[in-house]
Please model this.
Amino acid sequence: MAEMDVLIPFTTSGSLVDCVDKKMLVVLRDGRKLFGVLRSYDQFANLVLEDTVERIYHGNQYAETRQGVFLIRGENVVLLGEVDLDVEDEVPLQPGPRAEIQEQHQAEVVARKRRENTKATILYEEFGFCREGGEGDGY
Model:
């Protein structure tokens, strides 16, 4: 084991040391997908991304919005992964017109929320499950 590895305690945020200065994909709890270069993090897994773009998808098309420097609170991160720069250009997605993709993406989000609300209502009324954000859902 390398001498440097011994100095870094193995924790969730400590394991991010190898990801610094690499292009990363971050998926947030609200569903947004951010691509950027990880510049810094702390013990709470709060992240600082540089050259950040937010990407939305519809079918085999995507659109991006430049966000610049982005500070992400660790509790909002669902997924963090390194982007393989050698494979990135081989993904069969095409950039498309932002307005059109935004409209279609928003329609998908509304439909998904409607389905989730219907599901939550059935689970609550028929099976007694708590609604999201309800009792016992906090931490």
